[in-house]
Amino acid sequence: GDSVTQMEGPVTLSEEAFLTINCTYTATGYPSLFWYVQYPGEGLQLLLKATKADDKGSNKGFEATYRKETTSFHLEKGSVQVSDSAVYFCALEQTGNQFYFGTGTSLTVIP
Amino acid sequence: DVKVTQSSRYLVKRTGEKVFLECVQDMDHENMFWYRQDPGLGLRLIYFSYDVKMKEKGDIPEGYSVSREKKERFSLILESASTNQTSMYLCASSPDRAREKLFFGSGTQLSVL
Q1: Is B98 in contact with A95 (Cβ distance < 8 A)?
Q2: CA geometry: angle at B109 spanning B53 and A111, to 5°?
Q3: Using an 8 Å Cβ cutoff, are A102 and A90 in contact?
Q4: Beta pairing, strands A86-94 & A105-110
């Protein structure tokens, strides 16, 4: 069945460090791929998405490229801030609004 | 902005109690979902609904039921709460179009003692 695997955390970085959170997926057909972010005490909110191969999603300095050949959608940011501390979820969406989420990666950025 | 509102932020119940978790969305979305979130397990789908009075089982429906009498409201029911149902419960909605994102509520942290 369809699934998403993302790197386990927690991840701790110093401010201005480079961030990569790995995400790979298993799916039939042509799913859409998403990164959601959950700040402390809040629900999930969409960070970025890509709907077809080679698309790049970007938002707030974060980027991820839909790589069909490696079935990956890794999240990157060149310079993290303390305010980026949150839990990040990779997800895929199949036709029929079926969503599959990874287990989440907790990021802490220290000043 | 789309708003998905969950009635309680924190809830404490006793084993065996019947528990209702309420969720309301204000954007006329067709689809609504209930997930539970547990450390190390991510989000797991409990039930979802594509229309009023329709419901479909997700990955972990055992011990839960749902009700959707009105389009904007989707209720999750724990018929007889158990300690292993202590969790964060997240409601979400989405329009009935492909490749659309989910809009989440803030969650209800339920503790069953």
Answers
A1: yes
A2: 130
A3: yes
A4: antiparallel
Predicted pLDDT of residue A30: 85
Confidence of residue B101 (pLDDT cuts 50, 70, 90): confident
Cα A95 to Cα A27, A67, B62, B66, distances in angstroms: 11, 19, 25, 23
Contact criterion met (CB below 8 Å) for B90 and B32: no
Average pLDDT of span A67-91? 96
Q: pLDDT tens for residues A40-51?
A: 888 899 999 999
Q: Determine the distance from the C-alpha atom of residue B7 to the mean position of all C-alpha atoms in its chain, rounded to a whole number.
A: 11
The answer to whether A89 touches A23, Cβ cutoff 8 Å, is no
Q: Please give, rounded to a whole number of angstroms, the shortest distance from the CA of B18 to a CA of chain A.
A: 24
Test B45 with A99 for CB contact under 8 angstroms: yes
